[in-house]
Design goal:
It is an enzyme of class 1 (oxidoreductase). This protein is α/β, with parallel strands linked by helices. The protein contains 10 helices and 15 strands. The strands form 3 sheets. Strands 3, 4, 5, 6, 7, 14 and 15 form a 7-stranded mixed beta sheet that branches.
Length: about 350
């Protein structure tokens, strides 16, 4: 089978297209014929590692955590999935060398989720890291909810920073599906159009010295949840606009690796600062996210493509390095790799 691999960390030219045998699934594992592989910032960062020539935990690694395809074989003890099921995948390469940039991948069954009927592989491969991160960000408030469903966030106001990014896009969609009023911040008119297409009720643009005032006009009692991509840049703003007992969930380090918080205003509002990383969030949170994201799919709440606010840039498997470069370069929307023709 055609497989993209790297044997040491470094720039995208460490990736190569090779032929490898098709592995058999072991107990508790599922083999999936990959149709689409999704690329996220975490994928190029893992590949870059500590720099050129860095060592790996495996002889070689297949990149990319997310993807979608069709169950091709199941191992002993697997229940709930069958050969021929259309599925979406998450954390495919976490503590394993079995990412989705290959024609077949073998994964633990708990990282393979059946797709609802009618959901395309483009949508399915765009879930994983972005949608599950967004789910966690929306479910860490002191007063809940711990799960998302229609009405779960009714009466809440959510501020999503970076609403044109993949996580921001998913956060807007999930929050709207759950009944929240959504404000999002973006950096350009083009991205404002995308955020509105995703379903945001209000969009504010930065840089703007009056940004806090604009948000406070939209949410005079404060925002209940903040989905934060750049705490270095936004910490003081977040504390200014957050409601009492509000939560600020941060999942990235855009614009800096450290941030400071206004102490008295922060504790006076009982603010909860919640870091989150899917790799360490734990199985219960992952399971809840996979179930709720799938329920949102059933309701048609997570479309992709430019009309839905998330433009897609496609690459063939042999151009995986270019796909990684596109994500590293800040491509707007979602970067996907077409591994096989959509035959199902």
């Amino acid at each position: 089978m055609k497989t993209i691999v790297y044997a040491s960390t470094g720039p995208s030219n460490v990736l190569s297209l090779v032929e490898r045998g098709v592995a058999q699934p072991g107990p508790g594992e599922v083999r999936v014929k990959v149709v689409v592989s999704g690329v996220n910032p975490t994928d190029w960062k893992a590949r870059a590692g500590g720099g050129a020539g860095g060592s790996l935990d495996f002889d070689e690694v297949v990149p990319n955590q997310d993807g979608a395809g069709v169950v091709d074989a199941i191992g002993e003890g697997v229940h709930g999935l069958a050969v021929g099921d259309r599925v979406w995948l998450y954390l495919a390469a976490h503590q394993r060398p079995t990412g989705t940039a290959q024609e077949f991948t073998v994964l633990p069954v708990d990282r393979v989720v059946r797709l609802p009927e009618g959901v395309g592989f483009d949508v399915a491969a765009s879930l994983g890291v972005p949608a599950m991160t967004a789910h966690r960000a929306l479910t860490v408030h002191e007063h809940g909810p711990a799960r998302l469903s229609p009405g779960a966030l009714t009466g809440r106001t959510i501020l999503v920073h970076g609403g044109a990014g993949a996580v921001g896009h998913a956060a807007i969609q999930l929050a709207v599906w759950a009944g929240a009023t959504v404000i999002t911040s973006v950096s350009s008119d083009e991205k404002e159009t995308l955020a509105r297409a995703a379903g945001a009720h209000h969009v504010v643009c930065y840089p703007d010295a009056s940004l806090a005032e604009r948000i406070q006009e939209l949410a005079p009692h404060g925002v209940d949840h903040i989905v934060e991509v750049s705490p270095t840049q936004n910490a003081a703003l977040d504390v200014e606009v957050i409601a009492n007992h509000g939560s600020i969930a941060y999942y990235a380090n855009n614009n800096g690796d450290a941030f400071s918080v206004p102490i008295i205003p922060s504790f006076a509002k009982n603010v909860r600062w919640q870091g989150l990383l899917l790799y360490t969030v734990g199985p219960d949170a992952l399971r809840a996210a996979a179930e709720d994201v799938t329920a949102a799919l059933v309701d048609g709440a997570l479309p992709v493509g430019e009309p839905a606010g998330l433009p897609i840039t496609w690459f063939p498997l042999e151009q995986t390095a270019a796909a990684h470069d596109a994500v590293e370069g800040g491509a707007v929307g979602k970067v996907l790799i077409r591994v096989a023709d959509d035959e199902a």
